[in-house]
Amino acid sequence: MQQLLNTLLGGLTLGMVYAAFALALVMIWRSTRIVNFAQAPMAMVTTFIALSVIDAGHSYWLGFAAALLSGLVLGAVVERVLVRPVEGGPEINAVILTLGLFIVLHALASVIFGNRFRSFPAPFGVRGIEVGDTTIALTTSGVFTILAVLAVMGLLVLLFRFTDIGLRMRAAAHEPEVARLLGVRVGRMLTLGWALASLVGSLAGLLIASGSLVHPSYMDSVVVYGFVAAVLGGLDSPLGAVLGGLLLGLSLSLVSGYVGSQLVALAALGILVVVLLLRPGGLFAPAAARRV
Amino acid sequence: MPAPTRTAALTWWRHSLLGRHLLVAALGLLVVVAVLESVSDFRNVQLASMAYLGIAAGGLTVLTGLNGQLSLGHGALMAVGAYTTALCLPGPDAVVPLPVAVLASVLVTLLVGALVGVAAARLHGPYLAGATLALAVAVPGLALFFEERLGGEQGLRVALPEIPAWVLDLAFFVTGQELTRSRYVAYLGWLTLLVTFVLLANLSRSRVGRRWRAVRDGEVAAELAGIRLGQARVSAFVVSAAAAGAAGAMMAISVRLAAPSGFTLTLSLTLLTAVVLGGLGSLAGALVGAALLTFLPQLVTRIGTDAGLSDIQAAELSPLVYGLVMVLVVLLAPAGLVGTLRLALLRRRARRPASPVAGIPDPRHIPDSPGPSDSPGRPAGQTHDPATTSKGHTS
Amino acid sequence: MLQIRDLTVDYGPVRALAGVSFSAGGGAITAVLGANGAGKTTLLRTVSGLHRAESGTITFDEHRLDRVAAERMPALGLAHVPEGRGVIAELTVEENLRLGGLARGRVSRGELDRVLELFPALADRRSATAHVLSGGERQMLVIGRALMSRPTMLLLDEPSLGLAPRVVAQIFALLRRLVTDEGLGVVLVEQNARSALSVADRGVVLDLGRVVADEPAAVLADDDQLRHAYLGF
């Protein structure tokens, strides 16, 4: 019983991170119809930037802020310089482009930051919280992870629902030409969308890294989990991505706890295939047919 | 259109596809023998790895270039082939003869490929990319989970059976040299490559290949023409997987090991690089891509160490170059290097008055150029066509 | 005043407009008529900057429009309602309307209320997502959204397409009112020539990218030969 509870608590924390990462993928998919596979190495690079700041003797929080800021800038630059020319073109070109960027960032990080495991500090304790006289698997860092993701999601909802810029961004994503006729600078909105998504991706990267080891490839499996979570939610729905992330985090935690951690990726693949074949519109969509 | 001036040989050349491919393969074999015999053992090892990368890239280019399906999971399929070979060849007194081991690897990978292909046939673009990416990440985990059977992190050692006496004799009489083990392995790799490429070339020019292309170029039109989309997609995936299985077997034989560290995501992405570099859909391009993947790292690493980087850092320069080239190819030459050259050639020919002898190359080989700037629904707002702006001034 | 001179536009390899000239003033409805493929939609798209002209000039008041990006048109007082409705179905009715107002900076509540007053059907559904609207409501929404940017000139592309005659009449009556009461200029592109001429002040007939007639609406409606040749009624 206690093992189950701990497994589920671990899954909840992990699920929040996958949710954030899936959200980043969905934000980009909605606005540019591109799945940004390079999201993982982008987040990895910003985490290494944070680590460099922290290793230089600055506080964890300065590193945290530096990572988020560099995520914002990196996303904007990638969209404006690399992605803009392939937007609206054949989807295979966009996929190849993001994969090329994937390899580039990987190699760059290995050259600059070294191709070895380095430990990343945690902002808070990594020991389980004590409830009565038992220790549960939820750590203070874990609580921070959950709160941080919730806070970012809340801010995004506020931005998109209640601000003029959010309204413009949504219009640009859904109907670029109509938006242009209504005076929306569509190009700028797309750049901003990529920047924000990259920031959310960076946050996910930081939260996974905290109190753990980082390596140029430490986010590679996360992009798979993020993608699976996003597809669970229908790839078009931010709320779906969040729910999909939580569901996936819990499922994978159960697989890891009761079957074997080596099979987590395989389980994710299985879930992905089953969802794509049976409910291609995502778990929460009405059974409308969607081309996947 | 019959041309009376054409000789019988030319007519045969135009009509017998298999004959033409076999002739090219025979010439290729001569080149292979000449090259493998004249280079060092070290180069033979390199050429063996070029062969298995070429086989896998050839299979992938058929899938991606001709059928329009993208797979990031071919590294995983190679792993299936390599592990099958390793299980067939556990010790010096091999359980099964080498050709049987290779065939078994192809067969097992083919079956796995059919399974993946059935799922993949219903997916397109980014969904397919994501699913096959998951495959590439997931498969190495199996080797870790079944540690008893598959050797875990350490992997399985592959024992290369003794070279049969008749092969040694044959090699000696033909070339006048003793056959070394690494040269033997290189021969195995290149023979497999030639066989695979002849089969792939024939398939892709046959009725099956035309269906693959039809599906790639337009699903609705293909369906109206009576082509079953699912069948065409699955068959392309199966063929491509079989090639990956052969490549995996050759990889296992040449590195004598099947271990998870050999089948990282990087391998799958690297194969895609070879295909993109070569130009989607061209077997020759896949070979060029494989050559670049094999020989570029050395060159780039040397440049890196000369520039003062540590060995570990310099070793990362070659993936950096691959990635950069991939990005640049998409941005600047979306038809791939070979494809772009061919396009340029086509344009030059088109400018000249059509010559009666030279047939215009089949335009279906050229992947659709993206031209996003032409599409009216293009979201990006601030594109100004300099030509029209300047005209605006003159009027 | 919108003035178009010698406008030549290519659409891909096809010459869509060949030396088109006409003008449309404020306080009047100018109908642009012609068969399918006559170049009407290309004309509007070129005026609003979605498409570039090969040669010719477009001036609106004192601005040269042929050098202005589409995004800046609303700020100049020009609103283009594209063919096929153009509602953003994922946004609510109110969000669609607010988006129109954002083209001129901030949206005032008074502006929103004024437009909702013009279209009482929309007022009832202001917080519904636009994809639940009927065809007629969608057309009202896009016109209302365009009005939110307080334009002096409205470009309408086939507003009657697929709508019941009663709804078309309702929309045209509203346009007439805005033109007479507020001095709005309207360029109305229509295939449905009969009902367009019933509301328009002037009619410009396009055929294969050229202007074949530019007359007061009543004159056009009485010219049997022209009507049979180009307008199909």
Descriptive overview:
The complex is a heterotrimer of chains A (292), B (395) and C (233). By secondary structure, chain A is mainly alpha-helical. Chain A has a domain at 2-114 and 134-219. Chain A is 71% helix and 5% strand. Chain A is globular, with a radius of gyration of 19 Å. The mean pLDDT of chain A is 89. In chain B, α3 (41-67) runs parallel beside α9 (181-205), α9 (181-205) packs antiparallel against α12 and α10 (207-217) crosses α12 (229-255). Chain B has a domain at 17-264: ABC transporter involved in vitamin B12 uptake, BtuC (Orthogonal Bundle). Chain B is mostly helical. By secondary structure, chain C is of the alpha/beta class. Chain C has a domain at 1-77 and 188-233: P-loop containing nucleotide triphosphate hydrolases (Rossmann fold, 3-Layer(aba) Sandwich). In chain C, α3 (93-102) runs parallel beside α6 (135-148) and α4 packs antiparallel against α6. The model of chain C has no long low-confidence stretch (mean pLDDT 89). Chains A and C meet through α6 and α7 of A and α2 and α3 of C.
What's the CATH architecture name of one domain in chain B?
Answer: Orthogonal Bundle
Shape of chain A: globular
N- to C-terminal separation of chain B? Answer: 50 Å
Helix content of chain A: over 70%
Distance between the termini of chain A: 39 Å
The major beta sheet of chain A can be summarized as: 2 strands, antiparallel
Helix/strand class of chain A:
mainly alpha
Please give the share of residues in helix of chain B: over 70%
Structure annotation, total helices of chain B:
18
What coarse outline of chain B follows from CA principal-axis ratios? globular
Order of helices and strands of chain B: HHHHHHHEHHHHHEHHHHHH
Question: What would the keywords be for this entry?
Answer:
heterotrimer; A: 292 residues; mainly alpha; two-stranded antiparallel ribbon; B: 395 residues; ABC transporter involved in vitamin B12 uptake, BtuC; two-stranded antiparallel sheet
Topology diagram in text:
The complex is a heterotrimer of chains A (about 290), B (about 400) and C (about 230).
Chain A: H1 2-32, H2 39-55, H3 60-83, H4 91-113, E1 118-119, E2 128-131, E3 134-139, H5 140-162, H6 164-174, H7 176-181, H8 186-209, E4 213-214, H9 220-232, H10 238-258, H11 264-278
Antiparallel strand pairs in A: 1-4, 2-3
Helix pairs in contact in A: 1-5, 1-8, 1-9, 1-10, 2-3, 2-4, 2-8, 3-8, 5-6, 5-8, 6-8, 9-10, 9-11, 10-11
Chain B: H1 8-15, H2 17-38, H3 41-67, H4 74-88, H5 98-120, H6 125-145, H7 147-150, E1 156-157, H8 165-175, H9 181-205, H10 207-217, H11 219-224, H12 229-255, E2 257-258, H13 265-278, H14 283-306, H15 311-315, H16 317-332, H17 336-351, H18 386-394
Antiparallel strand pairs in B: 1-2
Chain C: E1 2-11, E2 14-24, E3 29-33, H1 40-47, E4 55-60, E5 63-64, H2 73-76, E6 78-81, H3 93-102, H4 109-118, H5 120-123, H6 135-148, E7 153-157, H7 165-182, E8 185-190, H8 193-199, E9 202-207, E10 210-216, H9 217-222, H10 224-231
Parallel strand pairs in C: 3-8, 3-9, 6-7, 7-8
Antiparallel strand pairs in C: 1-2, 1-4, 4-5, 9-10
